[in-house]
Amino acid sequence: METAAHGVDLVDCQRLGEAIERHGQRFLERVYTPLELAYCQGRKRELEHLAGRFAAKEAVLKVLGTGWREGIAWTDIEVRNDVAGRPEIVLQGRCAEIAAGQGLVKILVSISHIATHAIASAIGLREAGGGAGS
Fold first, then answer.
1. In a domain, 131, yes or no
2. Following DSSP, what letter does each residue of 22-75 receive, concatenated?
3. Residue 134, in any domain of the structure
4. pLDDT at 23 over 80
5. Which pLDDT does position 69 carry in this prediction?
6. Tally of structural domains, the chain
7. Do residues 114 and 122 lie in contact, with contact meaning Cβ atoms separated by under 8 Å?
8. Quick check: is 9 in a domain?
9. Could you say which of 19, 81, 122, 124 would form a disulfide bridge with 5 (CB–CB 3.0 to 4.6 Å)?
10. Domain membership flag for residue 44
11. 37 φ, ψ to 5°?
């Protein structure tokens, strides 16, 4: 496999917390999948975990090169954890279509957070020798 694109995003935890306070459950359900909410809610440092997943979604959009257009929904990007606890990206809907059109077969993600900020880095991979639309 070869690297096709890279994206990184940094989230201010306080700012995300203010958005959650302002918009409540409606915001959470618009941005996060039920699986993501189940993972984050009730955890120690819950807001940091939510911010990490938010940053991961933004980093993935940078890999795709789309931003929030072309019919993309926040929940088209889901951050899951594998059996070892490592985060992985699952694309659905419009994001999955865009990734397939670019020949992306996997998106790697790394997330880190502290009380004030969360950061995520995403790397899009395609089969060696494959170009966009291959």
1. no
2. HHHHHHHHHHS-HHHHHHHTTSTTHHHHHHHHHHHHHHHHHHHT--S-TT--GG
3. no
4. yes
5. 81
6. 1
7. no
8. yes
9. 124
10. yes
11. -65, -40
Question: Which residue shows structure tokens 């890279």?
Answer: 6
Q: How far apart are CA 33 and CA 79, in angstroms?
A: 9
Widest CA span in the chain: 47
Angle of CA points 40, 36, 55, to nearest 5°: 85
What's the full length of the chain, in residues?
134
- Inform me whether the pLDDT recorded for 65 exceeds 80: yes
Does residue 61 register a pLDDT over 50? yes
In which domain, by residue range, is 53 found? 2-126
Where residue 110 sits, what CATH number does that domain have? 3.90.470.20
When pLDDT is cut at 50, 70 and 90, the band that residue 68 belongs to is confident
Place of tokens 């395609």: 126
Sign of CA dihedral 7, 67, 78, 94: negative
Q: In b/e form, how buried is each residue of 45-55, taking b as 16+ CB within 10 angstroms?
A: eebbbbbbbbb
What CA–CA distance (Å, rounded) separates 12 from 39?
A: 20
